[in-house]
């Protein structure tokens, strides 16, 4: 479903080959897909259509969506391409979110195996968070120094 909605953003050559009526319909369909239940839309399909018409003029045929996204943000062109920048941001981040979820379940499977089947839910959650978020975890050397400083039983008589 994700690929169907954003397929036209994958390649500038694909965009060139689509008829004008189809291009507008695809943009309006994406607008409808990105509209919340309250009626607020993330993008304007008609404006997205006009922004995408400029793509073949500005970029080469072999330019990837990530290249377009980086170019727009590095040159502060989000006011020129507001709908395209939002669409690309959504298109480029959704696959990461899916992969991250699958990675989390894979880690959970490694943590909770047959030998640890009696583990409490709280401990399992804490171990999973440590394993999944290990890149963001606290620097252990600072933690050890802080702990040692707080728990030191030496009395400082010299005032250092």
List the helices and strands and how they pair.
Layout: H1 2-6, H2 12-17, H3 20-33, H4 45-53, H5 55-58, H6 65-74, H7 82-111, H8 121-132, H9 140-151
Q: Can you walk through the features of this model?
A:
It comes from Phrynocephalus forsythii. This is HAT C-terminal dimerisation domain-containing protein. Residues 64-135 form the HAT C-terminal dimerisation domain. InterPro entries: HATC_C_dom (IPR008906), RNaseH-like_sf (IPR012337). It is built from 9 helices and no strands. Helices cover 64% and strands 0% of the residues. The protein is elongated, with a radius of gyration of 25 Å.
Distance from N terminus to C terminus (CA atoms, Å) equals: 65 Å
What overall form do the CA principal axes indicate? elongated
Structural class: mainly alpha
Poorly predicted runs: none
**Main sheet specs:** none
What percentage of amino acids are in beta strands?
Answer: under 5%
* Mean pLDDT over the residues: 78
How many helices in DSSP terms?
9
Along the chain, the helix and strand elements come as HHHHHHHHH
Helix content: 55-70%
* Radius of gyration, CA atoms, in whole angstroms: 25 Å
> What's the total count of β strands?
0
Protein name: HAT C-terminal dimerisation domain-containing protein
GO molecular function: protein dimerization activity
Pfam family, one: Dimer_Tnp_hAT
